[in-house]
Every structure is written in C-alpha cells, then in structure tokens.
Automatic annotation (TrEMBL), chain A:
It comes from the Bacteria. Coiled coil: none annotated. The lineage of its organism: Bacteria, Pseudomonadati, Pseudomonadota, Alphaproteobacteria, Hyphomicrobiales. It is a multi-pass membrane protein. The chain crosses the membrane at residues 12-38, 58-78, 90-114, 134-157, 186-205. Belongs to the binding-protein-dependent transport system permease family. LivHM subfamily. It is found in: Cell membrane. This is Branched-chain amino acid ABC transporter permease. Keywords: Amino-acid transport, Cell membrane, Membrane, Transmembrane, Transmembrane helix, Transport.
TrEMBL record, chain B:
The lineage of its organism: Bacteria, Pseudomonadati, Pseudomonadota, Alphaproteobacteria, Hyphomicrobiales. PROSITE patterns: PROKAR_LIPOPROTEIN (PS51257). Its main location: membrane. It comes from Nitratireductor kimnyeongensis. It is a multi-pass membrane protein. This is Branched-chain amino acid ABC transporter permease. Keywords: Cell membrane, Membrane, Transmembrane, Transmembrane helix. The chain crosses the membrane at residues 7-24, 30-49, 61-79, 85-104, 111-136, 156-174, 208-228, 248-270, 277-297. InterPro entries: ABC_transp_permease, LivM-like. It is found in: Cell membrane.
C-alpha cells in the first residue's frame, strides 16, 4: 500500500482528461439533447492536428491553440451536417447520425495519418516531487487545465448573458425560443465549448501517450459511463465522475490486473444502470 | 391467394439463389455467402431496432458468442456442424435473454450506452479468456461443415447453400414473429411505450422475446461464419466494427421491414468486396451512406422502392383509367 498516494495522483491526472471530455459531452447532451458519439473524435483530432503542427515546427502551446480553433470549426461543421438537419427527428436518429459521424471522422483521420501510433514530443519535461508521490509537469498541467476549465465554464454559464441563454435552453428549449433566445448562437457556443475541451484534452494526453485514429473511441465511451454515473446534464457530476473513474481504473490496473482496467469501468457502468436505470444522481430521464 | 404468394416469393428466390450458386465462380460465391450471413444478422438486428425501437450495440459481441461456441463444439468436441449451430444459437439466445433482463430496465440513450458497455466487455472477454478463445491470436482449426454424402456439391457451394437456407429460415421465422401478437406489441412499444402500457398491452414479454430471438439468430449466423472461415479472432466482433456495420445495413436497407435489411446487407457487403475497395474506404463509405440515409431517407432503400412501386402503380392505373 506504500504507493497508494502515487496511484491516486496518477488516477487524478487520467481522470482529469475523462472529466474534460465528459464535461463537453454532458454540456452538448444537456443543452441540445444530442448524444454525441463523435465527441471522441474531437479529442482524436485535437491530438493529431497538434501533432502535425508540432512536427511542422510550431511551438507546442501555439500549436494547441491553433488546433483548438480548427477543432471548433470542425465541431460547427459537424453540427451543421449531421445534427441540425434532423433537429426534430426522434432521438434514435440523432444517435445513429452521431455514430455515422464518428466513423466518418475516424476513417478520414486514418486516410490522412495512417494507423500507426505516434507521439507528440513532450513540451515539458521534469517532475515535481512531493513527500509521498511524484507528478510529471505534464500531469500537473492536465490537472491545472481541468481546474481552469471548470472555473471558466462556471463563470461563463452563471455570469454572462450567453450562459444564461444556454442554461435556459437546457431547461426548456421551446420556452427559451419563445423568449427570443437565438438558438443558433446557443448551438454554436455549446459545440464550441465541447470541441475546445475535447481538443485540449487530446493535445495534452497526446504529449504523454501514443496517438492513433481510433483513440477517441475508448475515452468517449468512458465519458458516457461518467455521464451516466454523474447524472446526465450535471456538470458537477461529469467532473466528479471523471475523476472517480480515472482513480478507479488506475487502482484496478495497479492492484488487480491491467487487463481488467477497461472491463472494470464498463462493469461499473452495467452495475450502476442495473441498480439505478437513470444513473446515480439521475433525475427523471430527459425525453423530447 | 396472399398466403400462397407470401411463401412463393421468398422460396423461389431461395431456389434461384441455390441454383445459381452452382454456376458462379468460387470467389464470388464466397462474397455472396458472407453477404447472406450479414443478411441474417441484419434481419435479426432489425427485429430489435426497426420493430421494437431499441438500439443495441451488444450484437457484435453476441455474434462472437455464437462463433466461439460453434468453434469450441466442433473443433474440440467433434460435434457435427448442424447441431453445433443450433446449440450455439440457443446458447447465444440464452446470453441475449440475460442481457435483455438487464438492459430493458433502461431505455433510449441509456439502453444504447448500456448495451455498448456490454458489447465492449464481451470483446474484452474474448481477448482475456485466452484458454477458451485463443485470445488475440484467434481460434484456429474450426472444421468446415461436412457435405452430406447424398449431395454431390463442392464445399464452397455447400457453404453457400447453408447460408441461403439459414437466411430463408430467419426470414420466415422473423416474419411469423412480426405478424404475431408479440410483433404487434413490439410495434406499440416502438411507437409509444407509455400509451401501449396505458392501453393494457404487456410490453415486457414481447420486447424480451424480440431480443432473445434476435440474439438466437445472431448466434447462428456467428456459428456459420466461424465454420466457413475456419478461423475467428476478436477483431471480427467489435462494437465499432460489426456492431456498427449492422446499424448501417439496417438503416440503409430500410428500418422496420424485413426485406429491406436483406437488400442493405447484400448491397453493402457484396459491393465493396466485388469492387475490391480497401477496408478503410469501405468503412468510410458505410459511414457516409448511413449519414446520408438517416438524414434524407430515414426509412432506407425500402422506402424509395416502395414509393417508386406505388408511383408505377398509379401511372399504370391512370393510363388504364384514361382508356
């Protein structure tokens, strides 16, 4: 048990990336009722575009900023092509459309970058040694970025006019439209925040782990697990759920077997849904 | 008249398919056989997605359960293929029934996410349970179905005949189910589950039966796939591979019809093979087609054909009326 604090910190860093993806996913689902299976592709594209720019000689942080802009544009395009035209269709169509979009983005990335795994050169080397654990500067950055993102999103949602209209849409879309809230702006802002979070998470994780075109599938599925754990549409739940899942995974890998890391996460999902079909903190299920 | 026609069309198509399998070359025959297996999968999947309205992403893993079950029975215990296929189907049906017990506690997105989780666990288990499944290296040495002595055909032709026969049986069984009380109840579940319950329709059993039946035939398709490829590996049974392809086949072919998915399966599996496109491109094409159809023709090719058919009918009667 000596290295428990170390495991916890590693779990916290891993969980931070899950939390960032889950935060975006939860926002898009909570506000627009779109189960965005293609969200993992924001993450994948974030990693690959950053990779391409860094290889082309850009500074990592500049590359990440440019990537974020590019992925936001892709997110906007995705919404326009795959979701906006069937806004009024049943939820099943939106789900299928999201699945299709996810496969398309994955395969396009495979065509561009090939299937071999790559790594982004790490911009920060070195570690920070505390009494009971060691964190790399990269892990620290990831945890820090999640904190900043949480504060920024909270500020945006609760202290700006845009945030007010986003929250109003999440509560009741029809009423919000009747109140004269511009739906296009809300859609764009929601997708932009989601894509931004995904892209940043991808770029940061890509500087620590190998990247490949199907890398988005795992995290987005885990983000759905987090969503279900934390309660759909609850941003607090997304962050907490992400951290808990990350820590649980690292502990399972460390104390049981790394083979069971993923199985553990999904078994947790199945068990939670078995006991509470609407999620741990689930309100009554949202339906149109 | 109608019942006669009902059986006449599928059976005569089956006979034509069998007869033509004697004439076409081996490679093309193999492609058609795989197409028929995917058609079985698509029809079983549509019973759930099209008629009951639940998106299951666990079917890729169920297909694998049938395949591994058949592999273990025939390769290790020397069971002949046909009973092994039946047994694999029943076993997969049982697994499906268990999944259904859990999964139908949820609905909508939760159902999709839950079955997705189950599909992923299944795929991981195929990898982890290496003593049973061969792990990532795959399961080798599954014997081909034995050609009976009274049938003077080659192995490839016999494989194709088996696939066609399974497709015919699947189609007829699913049609019987859809036309039964249970099928009607499933449609009610799809349209409005609350209203159905309010009208006193028992929704529990029909949708449970639909899932179990769908799983049974998915398992049999898996068994046939295992026997005629002689080798299976976990990557054939992934959520985003086979699981996703099924969604594409059914939506492109036509949700909520039984012949649409057959059409979709034949088009989508046979065409890329026949044109020899790379796997990446064919998956990309699946995605693009799926997106196109879900946005512009959510009821698939079947709805387009139906519209053409009725327009043709209207044009003909219009002409006759004019005379």
């Amino acid at each position: 048990m000596e290295y428990l604090p170390q495991q916890l910190m590693n779990g916290l860093a891993l969980g931070s990336t899950y939390a960032m993806i889950a935060l975006g996913l939860s926002l898009i689902f909570g506000v627009l009722l779109i189960p965005n299976f293609a969200h993992g592709e924001f993450y994948m594209l974030g990693a690959f575009i950053t990779y391409t720019l860094t290889v082309a000689g850009f500074n990592f942080w500049l590359a990440m900023a440019l990537t974020a802009i590019a992925v936001i544009a892709i997110g906007f395009l995705l919404d326009r092509v795959a979701f906006k035209p069937i806004e009024m269709a049943p939820p099943l169509s939106l789900m299928i459309s999201a699945l299709a979009a996810s496969i398309i983005l994955q395969q396009v990335a495979t065509l561009i970058w090939g299937t071999e795994a790559r790594t982004i050169p790490t911009p920060l080397v070195g570690v920070w040694s505390a009494p009971f654990f060691i964190l790399t500067y990269m892990q620290l950055t990831i945890i820090g970025v999640l904190m900043v993102a949480c504060v920024a999103i909270w500020g945006l949602l609760h202290h700006t006019a845009l945030g007010l209209s986003i929250r109003a849409t999440a509560q009741n879309r029809d009423a919000a439209m009747l109140m004269g809230i511009e739906m296009l702006r809300v859609r764009f802002a929601t997708f932009a925040i989601g894509a931004l979070l995904g892209a940043v998470a991808g770029a940061l994780l890509g500087a620590t782990f190998p990247i490949y075109p199907t890398m988005g599938a795992g995290p987005v599925l885990k983000a759905f697990v987090v969503l279900v754990l934390g309660g759909i549409g609850s941003l607090k739940g997304a962050v907490l759920g992400g951290l808990v899942l990350g820590i649980a995974e690292v502990l399972v890998a460390g104390y049981i077997s790394s083979e069971f890391q993923d199985v553990g996460a999904f078994t947790l999902l199945v068990c939670v849904l078995l006991i509470r079909p609407n999620g741990l903190f689930g309100r009554v299920q949202m339906e149109r | 008249m109608r019942p006669l026609l009902d059986y006449f069309v599928p059976i005569s198509l089956f006979v034509i398919a069998c007869a033509s399998s004697l004439w076409i070359n081996d490679y093309f025959l193999y492609v058609v056989t795989i197409g028929a297996i995917f058609a079985v999968l698509a029809v079983s999947f549509d019973l759930l997605l099209g008629y009951t309205g639940y998106l299951s992403l666990a079917h890729g893993a169920l297909y694998g359960v049938g395949a591994y079950c058949c592999g273990i029975l025939t390769a290790w215990h020397g069971m002949p293929f046909l009973p092994a296929m039946l047994f694999a189907g029943l076993f997969t049906g049982l697994v499906g029934a268990l999944i259904a017990l859990v999964a139908f506690r949820t609905k909508g997105l939760y159902f999709a996410v839950l079955t997705l989780g189950i599909g992923l666990i299944g795929h991981q288990l195929f990898l982890i349970a290496a003593p049973l499944t061969g792990g990532i290296g795959g399961f080798i040495g599954i014997p081909s179905p034995n050609v009976p002595a009274w049938l003077p055909v080659r192995q490839v032709v016999y494989n194709a005949l088996l696939a066609f026969a399974l497709l015919l049986v699947t189609y007829l069984v699913m049609r019987a189910f859809v036309r039964s009380r249970f099928g009607a109840a499933c449609l009610a579940v799809r349209e409005d589950i609350t209203l159905a319950q309010a009208l006193g329709i028992r929704v529990g059993w029909p949708r449970f039966a639909a899932f179990a039946l769908s799983a049974t035939f998915t398992g049999m398709a898996g068994a046939l796939f295992a026997a005629l490829s002689n080798f299976i590996a976990p990557e054939s049974f992934t959520v985003l591979g086979t699981g996703f392809e099924l969604v594409a086949l059914v939506v492109v072919g036509g949700l909520g019809t039984l012949w649409g998915p057959i059409l979709g399966a034949i088009l989508l599996t046979a065409l890329p093979e026949a044109l020899r496109v790379a796997a990446t491109l064919s998956l990309l094409a699946y995605g693009a087609l799926l997106l196109f159809f879900i946005i512009f023709y959510p009821r698939g090719i079947a709805s387009i054909l139906r519209r053409l058919w009725s327009r043709l009918g209207a044009a003909l009667t219009g002409k006759l009326g004019g005379v």
